[in-house]
Write a structure and sequence with these properties.
The protein is of the alpha/beta class. The protein has one domain: Metallo-beta-lactamase, Chain A (4-Layer Sandwich). 26% of the residues lie in helices and 25% in strands. The protein contains 7 helices and 18 strands. Strands 8-5-4-3-2-1-18 form a 7-stranded mixed β-sheet. Strand 2 and strand 3 form a beta hairpin. Helix 6 crosses helix 7. The longest helix is centred in the first third of the chain and has 20 residues. About 4% of the residues have low confidence.
Amino acid sequence: MYFVDSYRKILTLLFRIFEAENCIDWRIDRMKIINLVENTPGVPGCGYEHGLSFYVETKKHKLLIDSGATDLFLRNAEVLGVDLREVDIVILSHGHYDHAGGILAFSQMNPNARIYLKDSAGEDYYHLKDREEKYIGIDKEILNLRQCRFVKGDLEIDDELYLFTDIIGRRFPSQGNLSLKRKEAGKFVQDIFDHEQCLVITQDDKRVLLSGCAHSGIVNILERYQEIFHSEPDMAVSGFHLMKEGTYSSQEIQNIQDMADTLCKMGTIFYTGHCTGNEASRIMKEIMGDQLRIIHSGETLIEV
């Protein structure tokens, strides 16, 4: 155990030395990423909820990535001085209410922004717990919005924006996924998260990967990214879906540690929050150090 802890500390130290000696600047020219809502309190005046939303500015676009569970992100945007009427593209990461809950309210204030969602995002998704069924899918009215663009597979929107899906790897599976189902012909089947899509933003020679909950597994998502781009992203922003009520088993803790060790070997800065959970974030932070940054509601990740 002492050797493992020492090994992790050495990895973190080496990353910091490499970052300093090579004068790595993780800032990305003319790009801004602001969290609009997340599970934990952050910027004074901003509310928080079990949901996720980001505002992103690039050289060409102003984007909304997910919309939280309610219209709270709209009020937070006002507090933060973000004018969502200027957004031209919306990306829905997957078909769960805590990412799509504010889309209808947004569409009333901004009826022109294109909304990209997987063609399976509108299916019937449920959380089953103690024999209780809870619908966690999106409001079906979203599917009737004329702004919607239904994505069937990978899609290059333009030279800045690329959407990918078809994540088939199964490394470091989340136990929390087991209770998430899709309803088909009146019967529940395991959700395989083919409604999940990831966004890659390219700015000059830098790339940022944005995911919602990474239900497919952040390591598997990164492997799919590497298949497409033959490199590692400079920055990745995503929940890791490790949150759990109660305590983790020893096997679950080992799984979280092994995942953090794997991410440590990459030259990527990670931002996480929402469904990762406080305890999993703490475990990973001990291993990854400054390579992992924790998101709170209303905080700015990048502003250049």
